[in-house]
Design brief:
Layout: E1 14-16, E2 21-22, H1 23-31, H2 37-44, H3 54-75
Antiparallel strand pairs: 1-2
The structure holds FE2/S2 (inorganic) cluster (FES).
Length: about 80
């Protein structure tokens, strides 16, 4: 039995609705050096409205940092 992964998100999906910040924009900011939620807030203004997206932003940050770390280890 194959279960489709409908939880998979695209880079166009909005992570921060209030500030219209997409998953792709957050990933790009992390690739360009943002390493904390506060740095993402400063760069993109995400999490600066209602604040309910902060958990999603933090999770995405952790995932991306792990991916970057993994890629670095492979190429080092
Ligand atoms: S959804 Fe990001 S601040 Fe409201």
């Amino acid at each position: 039995m194959v279960i489709s992964d409908k939880t998979e998100m695209s880079d166009d999906d909005l992570i921060c609705i209030c500030m219209s910040v997409s998953r792709g924009e957050i990933k790009a900011s992390i690739r360009n050096g943002s390493r904390t939620v506060d740095e993402l807030k400063a760069a993109l203004y995400c999490c600066t409205g209602c604040g309910t997206c902060e958990g999603r932003v933090r999770t995405l940050l952790e995932e991306e940092l792990k991916a970057i770390s993994g890629n670095t280890k492979e190429t080092a």
